[in-house]
Amino acid sequence: MNNCAYREADNKELKKIVFMGACPGINEGKEQRPFSQYGRAGLSLRVLVSVLSKMKSDLFTSGRLDDYTLANAHQKIRRTGTPTLGEINDEGNKARLRKILAGDGIVVVAMGKDAAEASRRVEVEPRFLFPHPTSRKVNKPKRGSWQANWEYWVGEAIK
Fold first, then answer.
1. Average pLDDT, whole number, for the chain?
2. Is 145 exposed, middle or buried, given 0-12, 13-18 or 19+ CB atoms closer than 10 A?
3. Domain enclosing residue 55, as ranges
4. What gap in Å lies between CA 148 and CA 68, rounded to an integer?
5. Is residue 26 part of a domain?
6. Residue 79 falls within a domain, yes or no?
7. CA–CA dist 22, 112 (Å, integer)
8. Is the CB of residue 20 less than 8 Å from the CB of residue 71?
9. Is the pTM of this model over 0.70?
């Protein structure tokens, strides 16, 4: 079932933690996985997971991204931009998201407002909302690096 919009967790104990992005980009389409191993979003998200495993280790017990479930709010590959509200609200898309987010104890880590909105549309409130990993908030660091920026955002989220 793995594809550019969904990747099952390698660690079955952590599969209920879902990192959700907006939609796959070109690299994700080529690799057939969310959050490409070579694109900016995937590289930045790997730093976030490492930070979470140190600052919120009671929940994020691994610093390895692929130990968690990865998903996108919509499955259409885009070079730039994000899904429209119509695409997020499409019944087929919502059915796909409901299947991914089914069950008790699901923890959604929404990477941007589109991911948060998609999660809410299927009645799963995100536990964490962070900037999209390619946003200026993360990639134009005022704090010196991705590491320092993610430490700031995690600190804000767990206050």
1. 91
2. exposed
3. 6-154
4. 22
5. yes
6. yes
7. 7
8. yes
9. yes
The reply to whether 1 falls in a domain is no
How many secondary structure helices (H) and strands (E) does the chain include?
7, 5
Q: Which two structure tokens, joined as six digits, stand for 41?
A: 């979003």
What is the average pLDDT across 54-83?
93
**DSSP-derived secondary structure letter, 34:** S
**35: nearest Cα among 17, 23, 51, 18:** 23
- pLDDT at residue 4 tops 70: yes
CATH number, position 93 = 3.40.470.10
Q: Which two tokens stand for residue 36?
A: 């490409």
d(CA 29, CA 37): 12
Structural domain contains residue 65: yes
Domain count, the chain: 1
Distance of CA 67 to the CA centre of its chain: 13
Of 37-41, 71-75, 110-114, least confident by mean pLDDT is 37-41
Burial of 133 (0-12, 13-18, 19+ CB in 10 A): buried
Give the pLDDT score at 53.
Answer: 97
